Amino acid sequence: MKNIYFDNAATTPIDSRVVDAMIPILKENFGNPSSIHSNGRIARSVIEKSRKQVASFFNSNPSEFFFTSGGTEADNMILRCCVEDLGVTHIITSRLEHHAVLHTAEELRDAEGVKLSLVNVCSKGIIDLNHLEELLKLGGKTLVSLMHANNEIATKLPLKEVGEICKEYDALFHSDTVQTIGHYSFDFSDLNLHFATCAAHKFNGPKGIGFLYMRSDAQLKPMITGGAQERNMRAGTENIYGIVGLAKALELAYDGLEEHHRDIQILKSYMIKRLKEEIPGVSFNGDSESTDSLYTVLNVCFPNSDVDEMFLYHLDIEGISVSGGSACSSGSNIGSHVLRGIGTSMERPSVRFSFGRFNTIAEVDKTVEVLTKIYSK
Ligand SMILES: Cc1ncc(COP(=O)(O)O)c(C=O)c1O
After folding, report:
1. What residue's CA is closest to ligand 1, atom 4?
2. Which parts of 193-302 fold into alpha helices (H)?
């Protein structure tokens, strides 16, 4: 049975062209980029070439990009170092953020006495910008940390508008762009955005590599200390093949962006249509039904059936990989904080389908067929 993978917001399969770009580095470029001999110098030049390539996709300067182990590390560093190095005393975020932001902000509140404000959201997960302004008026050196698109319910943030609001109140602005880099184009020079974060495994790149974008006027100090790597910003011998893989994955993502966007949106719209036709009572959580939402994510609330508790298991034995909305976010049984945060009923099973470039209409058809079987029992 061929596996149908609809969990691309969790991670994507690596593109074989990315693997091809990484293999020569793994095989031949073993030098430590900090070494002064030729092996080291070659490795260093590979990294700097990749950094330049990465920066070119965001209309930014290569010096504003720092490679990290992924999104979690970059999010952590921004929040922690904004407090430690830039004197931030007030963090404004939302209850719908990824735990990399939310748990870090809560820890900074509890351990460092930082004031933490949660901006109001509506049932679709849309941020209340008037409330954001009210919170900004409370003053103090403020960091606003709001994700560009929600990984569970697909709600998007108007980055430019929020950037303008932050500018008016002289606040620092971080957006967790982990779900949108590689899926939307960005011009960082045109946004009042101080910090952004990226994870290559969300756009068919390798796991364990990402970057932190830090605008040149917002200089943090390192969170990980030791050697002088990443221009003294992130100690530790660089993940060279990961960096090359990230740059290649970005290149492929941006080369085919319009096509990928169109094709994946077609799959998502088709799935919405088929589910509405075949399963009476189905509804969509958050903003995920809207064509303005993150086009890779569809969060579906299903009617009750006699397999409620085993819903994901049923899909799994049919070879369909998805994420649970109501069950858990990572094997824990506390339920999705995002669905709870927008007041979704936990009585009905919710499932997140997330699409990628390798999915097909036939896979949507097969999935709807399996779901229809559950309801015809
Ligand atoms: C919105 C968001 N932020 C951060 C992360 C964490 O990224 P990483 O897995 O690279 O640590 C994820 C991953 O699921 C995510 O979806």
Report:
1. 71
2. 229-232, 240-255, 257-278
Question: What are 51-78's pLDDT values in tens digits?
Answer: 999 999 999 999 999 999 999 999 999 9
- Orientation of helix 361-375 relative to helix 257-278, angle to 10°: 20
Question: Do both 280 and 180 map to the same domain?
Answer: no
For 185-190, the CB contacts below 8 A with 24+ separation are 185/57, 185/254, 185/257, 186/57, 186/58, 186/59, 187/58, 187/59, 188/58, 188/59, 188/60, 188/64, 188/213, 188/215, 189/59, 189/60, 190/59, 190/160
- Give the model's confidence band at 308: pLDDT under 50 very low, under 70 low, under 90 confident, else very high: confident
Give the integer Cα–Cα distance in Å for 145 and 167: 14
Q: Separation of 167 CA from ligand 1 center, angstroms? A: 26
Hey, how many other C-beta atoms are within 10 angstroms of the C-beta on 131?
Answer: 16
Q: Which ligand 1 atom sits closest to the C-alpha of 208?
A: 10
Query: Atom 9 (ligand 1): residue with closest C-alpha?
Result: 71
Ligand 1 atom at minimum distance from 72 CA:
11
**CATH code, domain with 117:** 3.40.640.10
Q: How far is the CA of 72 from the centre of ligand 1 (A)?
A: 6
97-128: pLDDT as tens digits: 999 999 999 999 999 999 999 999 999 999 99
Residues 339 and 268 in one domain: yes
Q: Active-site positions?
A: 328
Which of 255, 283, 314 is where one domain is finished?
Answer: 255
